[in-house]
Design brief:
691 residues; OB fold (Dihydrolipoamide Acetyltransferase, E2P); nine-stranded mixed β-sheet; six-stranded mixed β-sheet; globular
Length: 691
């Protein structure tokens, strides 16, 4: 037990995390009121045991177990108390909402066809206006409004009913409903500008309001002094954390080169600023009072940076983490970096327990823990006398340590591994650091036009060099290993095996050999089971994608893909709706040409696994006169009167190009009972599967 005493906050934070995860994955484990009663009993017992343990050392272990159990149950209760849908006035409890009054709670994000922002509801109109709570993610069509005129904190009146978020409509698709649920958002609404009415400006222009105004100002400065759309977009991403303007090709290049982390202002950027502050104050390190001065200045400058970036969640996490690191030394805490990091995580989870499910939160803490634990042992493997060589080796060790720590999560969330991350980071880290520092300097001297002009030109050159570096890296042979699919359980196995291997190299103990072999063996078995099950599956999918038609035939790691031309060129929608299903089925090759397609009288016919499928995608097309098992209808091509010509038993599939009104007519019609209708917009993708 004594061995673990220095890691008290690590144990406490891990117990809090266990309680929170239990509430997320097993919400019915404890009802709300009994959980609170159990927590009260455990707290009382822990307090009593604390005083007894001061007199009797024999019960200290009992006190420790009781205290950790209390923290675990507290985590369970804390998450339940932080879940907005349990509130009695939440909009989930109301029906027949025709309008609602709300307050804007985020900066608008520019999407392809709309503006996106979050609002917090104040009151709703049913038969009358009543107070209510809840959050809604709102999309306003760009066809009706060029730019959002409303600001953070403005009060709006929105007409219409917010729709409940739906589960994924396509196989293995990203669960957007679950993702927003972790932000306490359960509704969305798609609007035209005419449905939104401005009511009043922000009543209380608080800290966040002014932070958003400063970020808007910083964005105008970058646009004024840096030329080129992509140069501006990368500068916005590196300095302010705004990634909306970066095109897909450049994003792919950053991902393929292992440099995607520089485009999201988070732990690395805040860490760079903190290290620069420490270097600037190094000359006064010998004075006793310097520790407090450095801590105070560091915390002030870090939170100033967070303020300028709009207090985004990723920056707040990183700034909180490094604020605790800055405070540790002057306070004289008899602790270590692991306890300091655990304390910062504990405070963040007290503020928002759902942060534990945030990808950024997980990656940030794993990367820092990896660097802290592995960087120094790796660095000591090779002592280089050259200053330049030593610098290169130091960056390499940092990159390796962070990559090892985040390797499993990277495969789980991003399904790829950048092969040349070591090479690219040798250039990307220094260049991105220079752009970050230069961007901050540009904001600081923006009032001095000639100086700002010169800094802007220097930033242009550095950003172009940075972009060129990642694009060259992407073009190298085998630059990225893609199409990786692992389950959450397999991710845990990989992390366990890596940790076991590290402990084996550190302690040279035989038990770690057997544990590493066991974990690797279980991973191989589960992966082999997954591949044998999914690669042997033959599948036809009619995807559910609004305003688009898409079909895919999958078998033996190969797919044939049929979609409209707009969707084929829409990288984001394809990646979101279709690629996840390919990953699960191990698809390595996708072909647009379908060899088993037969066209007769403008109708496409497909014979697949003893089933016949016809596609009707144009109006006034002649109906197939041969029996078909499935008829896929696009663009309102099939009329109700035409069903008389269909063979009995044919299943009609209405794809995403059909309107809700058209679908409703089919559902309300009294058609022959021998036909079934499947509308992908309402029922999700149609899947025909054979093992």
């Amino acid at each position: 037990m004594q061995k673990w005493v220095p890691y008290a906050m690590v144990r406490i934070t891990l117990c809090l995390v266990c309680g929170i995860l239990s509430a997320i994955y097993f919400p019915g484990l404890l009802p709300a009121k009994p959980a609170i009663v159990i927590l009260a009993i455990l707290m009382s017992a822990s307090i009593a045991l604390y005083f007894l343990a001061r007199r009797n050392k024999n019960i200290r272990s009992v006190y420790g177990i009781s205290a950790l159990a209390t923290i675990t149950v507290f985590g369970f209760v804390h998450l339940n108390q932080s879940t907005d849908r349990h509130n009695p006035d939440h909009i989930l409890q109301h029906s027949n909402i025709s309008a609602y009054e709300c307050i804007i709670r985020s900066a608008p994000e520019s999407k392809t066809n709309s503006w996106k922002f979050y609002v917090e509801i104040v009151q709703v109109k049913t038969t009358e206006w009543i107070p209510a709570s809840g959050k809604v993610v709102v999309y306003v069509s760009k066809k009706t409004i060029d730019k959002i005129p409303w600001l953070y904190g403005d009060k709006l009146l929105i007409k219409g009913t917010p729709q409940k978020l739906r589960p994924p409509a396509n196989p293995n698709e990203f669960d957007y409903k679950r993702f927003l649920g972790f932000k306490n958002v359960y509704h969305q609404q798609f609007l035209k500008a005419g449905q939104v009415q401005f009511v009043a400006p922000s009543e209380r222009k608080g800290f966040i309001y002014y932070s958003h105004r400063v970020r808007d100002w910083a964005g105008t400065v970058i646009e004024a002094y840096i030329r080129g759309d992509q140069n501006q977009a990368v500068a916005m991403a590196l300095v302010l954390g705004i990634t909306e303007g970066i095109d897909n090709d450049l994003l792919s290049a950053y991902a393929a080169s292992g440099a995607m982390h520089v485009l999201a202002v988070s732990g690395m950027h805040v860490g760079i600023i903190y290290v620069i502050i420490l270097l600037l104050f190094k000359p006064i390190k010998k004075y006793q009072w310097s520790a407090w001065l450095v801590a105070a200045v560091s915390i002030f400058l870090l939170w100033t940076f967070a303020f300028v970036t709009g207090l985004s969640p990723s920056v707040l996490r990183a700034v909180t983490m490094f604020s605790f690191v800055a405070l540790a030394k002057p306070l004289g805490w008899r602790t270590n970096i692991y306890n300091t990091l655990a304390t910062s995580a504990f405070v963040l989870l007290l503020y928002d327990p759902y942060l534990v499910m945030s990808v950024g939160f997980q990656l940030s803490y794993l990367a820092v823990m990896g660097i802290v634990y592995l960087q120094r042992p790796l660095y000591n493997l090779w002592i280089i006398d050259s200053r330049f060589g030593n610098w290169v080796w130091e960056i390499t060790c940092i990159s390796i340590a962070a990559q090892i720590a985040t390797f499993a999560l990277g495969m789980l969330y991003f399904h790829q591994f950048p092969v040349y991350f070591l090479v690219s980071n040798l250039f990307v880290i220094p260049l991105s650091t220079a752009v970050l520092v230069g961007g901050i300097l540009l904001l600081g001297v923006s009032a001095i036009t000639p100086l700002a002009f010169l800094i802007g030109r220097a930033l242009e050159w550095m950003i172009e060099l940075l972009n060129g570096t990642v694009m060259v890296t992407e073009k190298l042979p085998y630059s990225i290993i893609g199409g990786i699919y692992v389950t959450t359980f397999q991710c845990w196995l990989i992390m366990g095996a890596l940790l076991s291997l590290i402990l084996l190299l550190q302690h040279r103990n035989r038990q770690w050999v057997w544990l590493t072999i066991l974990l690797c063996g279980i991973f191989i078995i589960t992966q082999e089971s997954h591949l044998s099950q999914n690669l042997s599956t033959k599948q036809v999918v009619v995807y559910s994608i609004s305003n688009h038609s898409a079909m895919e035939w999958i078998a033996n790691g190969k797919s044939y893909y049929r979609a409209d031309s707009v969707l084929r060129n829409d990288y984001e929608r394809t990646r979101f709706h279709i690629v996840p299903n390919r990953l699960q089925h191990g698809v390595k090759v996708t072909q647009a040409e379908i060899p088993f397609e037969r066209v007769h009288n403008s109708v496409s016919f497909f014979a697949w696994n003893k089933k016949s499928i016809a596609v009707l995608d144009k109006r006034n097309q002649p109906l197939p006169r041969v029996p078909v098992d499935y008829l896929v209808v696009s663009n309102h091509a099939l009329q109700l009167k035409d069903t008389a010509y269909l063979q009995p038993g044919t299943k009609i599939i209405l794809d995403g190009t059909n309107s809700s009104r058209y679908i409703a007519r089919w559902k309300s019609a009294r058609v022959n009972q021998s036909w079934q209708v499947h509308a992908v917009a309402d029922e999700g993708a149609f899947i025909l599967q054979d093992h």
